[in-house]
Amino acid sequence: MALRITRRGLGRSLAAGCGLLALAGSGRSAPAQDLRFFRIGTGTTGGTYFPIGGLIASAVSRPFGAPPCDQGGSCGVEGLIAVAQASLGSVENVNSVAGGSIESGLSQADIAFWAYTGTGLYADLGPQENLRAIAHLYNELVHVVVAADSGIRDVEDLRGKRLALGDEGSGTLIDARAILGAYGISEADIEPAYMGAERASDAMLAGELDGYMFVGGVPLLAVEDLARRMELRLLPFADQTAWRLRLELPFFTAAMFPEGAYEGVPPVPTIAVGATWITSVDVDEELIYGITQALWHPTTHTLLQNGHARGRDILVENALRGIAIPLHDGAARYYREIGMLEGGEISDPEE
What we know:
Helix content: 25-40%
Number of helices: 12
CATH class of the largest domain: Alpha Beta
Shape: globular
Distance between the termini: 38 Å
Low-confidence stretches: 1-32, 347-351
CATH superfamily of the largest domain: Periplasmic binding protein-like II
Number of domains: 2
Mean pLDDT: 88
CATH topology of the largest domain: D-Maltodextrin-Binding Protein, domain 2
Structural class: alpha/beta
Radius of gyration: 20 Å
Number of strands: 15
Order of helices and strands: HEHEHEEEHEHEEHEHEHEHEEHHHEE
């Protein structure tokens, strides 16, 4: 697969900033044909994929002329500039990776599984068998955000309300439909809107929505900002319906919003899906091996910890948890070298 990025693609992207700056200020220039670009489809700017993707892009990039890793420079792949590209989220990223228009992307584990197997959302499209996994990153929590002074206290109270379900083409929308369906609520039972967390927060503040759903890592920038401007409530998932939903769709797991996740919001039980970094089988094995190695370098861990609250959860010991599609050969090679794979099998760290 040719690793090239268009001028238009760059316009929609959050570049691996420190990598590009290092390239510009290194005092050395490399022939353009020697540089490799690697796009990472992320999500909307108000979600968690976008900043996490930017941090990962910086970590795996190493422009020519940058100081070596052991001298305080980048520990990424030499000659690689990774670019975190804004998107609508999981579904767009999966489709773009499967179609070959980007090299990698972040996706909810359920969306990647449905696409690879040609089930669920992808039943009419057939299996996207070229999809491969690089790593599990962290858990994404289901947010159902309403005003604290509203009468909405559980999912059943959403009937008849103005509720945003996520952007068209997003993983949030797919999960929102599945979750509401488990409670016997269809889009005909609410006044649905289709927008991401950022626009939905503005609409709530303007009194145009009663609430919104979003699936993402904590803290979500859009929810953080809204919590500073109005008092919020997050709806809980701790009843029998949530339990049955997890049995029926095992990529949903039990989770908890921790104390202090959002201003004025106490700990709340919820459900979650895993965030997976995916790529295509067509991407060079040696490149994915180097990217996987850079992802789990100690300097990357420090960068992620300091760069975003969710970055603290991106740990190599969790890298293979909840992986629902095959690993890329380059990633599998790395995990085999560090003892996390035995032959072709994933070694469960909890066993």
